[in-house]
Amino acid sequence: MSDGSETSTAQPLDEKIIELLRKAKRVSVLTGAGVSAESGIPTFRGAGGIWAKYDYRKLATPAGFAEDPELVWEWYQLRQREIMKARPNRAHEAISLMERYYPEFTVITQNIDGLHHRAGNSTVLELHGNIWRMRCDRDHALMDISEPLDHIPPICQCGSILRPDVVWFGESLPTDVLDAASRSASECEVMFVVGTSAIVYPAAALPVLTKNSGGCVIEVNLEPTDVTTYADVSLRGRASEVLPELWTAVVNPESFIK
Description:
Layout: E1 5-7, H1 15-23, E2 26-31, H2 33-37, H3 56-59, H4 62-67, H5 69-85, H6 90-101, E3 104-109, H7 115-119, E4 124-126, E5 129-135, E6 142-144, E7 163-166, H8 175-187, E8 190-194, H9 206-212, E9 216-221, E10 233-236, H10 239-251
Parallel strand pairs: 1-10, 2-3, 2-8, 3-4, 8-9, 9-10
Antiparallel strand pairs: 5-6, 5-7
Helix pairs in contact: 6-10, 8-9
């Protein structure tokens, strides 16, 4: 098993990695915006990202919500409508197949769109929340929604204004979710890191936990990231192309190993 090596799905993958993936019992997948982007959902950072067009201080902070909750909800309605048009792509589908294969399998995602659930995954830790859920900060009620609300801002039965159940700038990740993600990262034999730049903490520390615990880290991304420096394998390409081909190699090694 090489350290920090790079390969592509056009080349044979190390047989030891394939064998590890076939025999592993505990596997985790950390996903980021790159996975959702292949379903047509805009990313947040970088050129063309959402925060290049909108002011996060007005739309994604507790202060912005307190100042104008209706404006914030209008923006989330817009995003929900965009997400409703999206469909899980082949990367989501491959990750769903993985869950059926491994006895212990966890998706840890930084995405809030719910596409992993729609693809069929049941064990999903949503580090940044879910756009299809709202909550009350007064009585801590949680409510799921399936489509954009007709009337905004929504009001809780206690009389407080409900907010999207997502993590905003200046807020901490939910402790229970982060603790569960950390346990999964520390205990898994393999962690896939897919479509994330791995520069935002504490999520970026999760593959480091896997590596430091003796696990194998497999990166799938279009470009090199900080993970590349310590990943056992870095696969370059679109997740919707790389993951299905890689998964075919696991269930049918002869298709991949030369």
